[in-house]
Amino acid sequence: MKTISIFNQKGGVGKTTSVVNLSVALAKFGKKVLVIDFDPQANTTTGLGFDKNNQEKSVYKMFYDEDGNYKDYIVKSEDGPYLIPSENSLSGLEVELVSLDQVERLQMLDQIIKEIKKDFDLILIDCPPSLGLLSLNALVASDSIIIPIQTEYYALEGVSELLKTYDTIKNSIKEDLEIEGVLLCMFDKETNLSYEVAEEVKTFFKEKVFRTMIPRNIKLAEAPSFGKSVILYDEKSKGARAYMALAKEIIENIFRKNDLEKDSNDDKTEDKKETEEVFENPDENKEKNNKNSADDKLDEEKEIIDKKDDKKFEDGIVKKNKFSFDQNKLVNNEKRD
Predict the structure, then answer these.
(1) Which residue, 13, 167, 179, 255, is the most exposed by fewest CB within 10 angstroms?
(2) pTM higher than 0.85 for the full model?
(3) What is the pLDDT of residues 254-311, one digit of tens each?
(4) Which DSSP state fits 254?
(5) How many CB atoms lie within 10 A of CB 39?
(6) How many DSSP H helices and E strands does the chain contain?
(7) Angle between helices 238-251 and 15-28 (to 10 degrees)
(8) What is the Cα 184 distance to its own chain's centre?
(9) What's the Cα-to-Cα distance from 309 to each of 119, 260, 298, 304, rounded to whole Å?
């Protein structure tokens, strides 16, 4: 299980749009996802089909639940993800948290998530566009962050301040807080500026930049007015396909890594078992090794033949990154719309 905050103190960069659509895309791939709307504007709540002005239970009220019945605040959206909704009253929580101990007030959300995280594969937190106590609570409660950046000049100006906050949290309270990835949003393939900003971001963050970029797309803008994700609103749109691709990339990065670590541990266990068998049955293993030696020789001969056959096709194989930069022109190995 992993908790990820979608965080950027600058507004209008695609945080809420990414939380809503990424969570639905992850659910489409069979992951059980919980979204925590930690923004007083509550746009994620409405984006997943709920009325932010008519919530009996919200993340704000959850902070004052003395009985700790946090699961009662989780609702199921029609789009697939689970949600802890927000409301405008959440804006007062920052003032109310000030009265607490300095460390305690930063760990309130973390304590809540520890009680509910075992029921989910992923938890996504929509952070407010600020560097206040709400955002700090979300960062402390997270294992990693996704940084959405709009591909426009002014979007770059706040990145240094964002990273300063990230480093402060990492060095003082949350040493294992990592950057899951940087997401380039509102990419416009018709403008040179989008390519230039993308190149600048990739130069700075290097491999942390997601291969998938989110394009400017009218369907992404229309979907929230219907209380839907773009994936349900128009699954064939460029925006929907981009978020599905992003979800697939994140699943590969997180779950395949976990699977590889598990396989590595299983291999170590298997190696240990084989070593024990060698000492327990030396004669039996001698015959087994002779057979394996003969099989290995046949495999080597087959490999030589296969390499000769593969040589014929070697020149036709081209390995490409998802995108690369060449004189500010984006090269994408997928067909553009």
Answers:
(1) 167
(2) no
(3) 887 655 455 545 555 555 454 344 344 545 544 545 545 544 544 454 444 344 444 4
(4) I
(5) 26
(6) 14, 9
(7) 70
(8) 13
(9) 50, 31, 17, 9
